[in-house]
Amino acid sequence: MAAGRGLRLPLVYNTGGHDRVETLRWLDGVVDIYMPDFKFWKPETAKELANAPDYPDVARAAIKEMYRQVGDLVLDEHGLARRGLLVRHLVMPGEPDETRQILRFLAKEVSPGTFVNVMPQYLPEGLVSQHPTIARPLKGSEFQQALAIASDEGLRRLARG
């Protein structure tokens, strides 16, 4: 209704990436910008850290559907996002293989023009101490490695941070 009355702001769907394709299809033609996270590649990691062993499969299917609907991110002359896909990946300590697999998937199975925000903000809090592999902050060298992986895998559009 708002669009029919002249609303011209891009509609952004901000999500953790665990979205059913059937639900996303309802949004086809409504959402302008999809902004999913892609957190885990391995079901074991997703089960251990998020109690969602299906997360990798669900996220891959969801991101492909989002891309089908809106394509690569398009910026206007002022740098404002107007339409497309922007994927966020939080780099986790000690998990360069997960990062590599996620970034490879985005470059090869979605688009090398996928806009990816590679994020170094991981900080261990709360019950994280129960998971020794991620019970420490991310090292700067791990973040730099993630950026190099993105480049190695052929991704051309990165935001850092």
Task: Explain this structure.
- The chain is of the alpha/beta class and 161 residues long.
- It has one domain: Aldolase class I (TIM Barrel, Alpha-Beta Barrel), CATH 3.20.20.
- It contains five helices and six strands.
- Strands 1, 2, 3, 4, 5 and 6 form a six-stranded mixed beta sheet that branches.
- The longest helix is centred in the middle third of the chain and has 16 residues.
- It is globular.
- It starts with 11 loop residues before the first strand and ends with a strand.
- The model has no long low-confidence stretch (mean pLDDT 94).
Assigned CATH superfamily = Aldolase class I
Give the domain tally. Answer: 1
Strand tally is 6
- C-alpha termini separation: 36 Å
CATH architecture: Alpha-Beta Barrel
Largest β-sheet summary = 6 strands, mixed
Kindly list the characteristics that best describe this protein:
161 residues, six-stranded mixed sheet, TIM Barrel, globular, 18% strand, 5 helices, alpha/beta
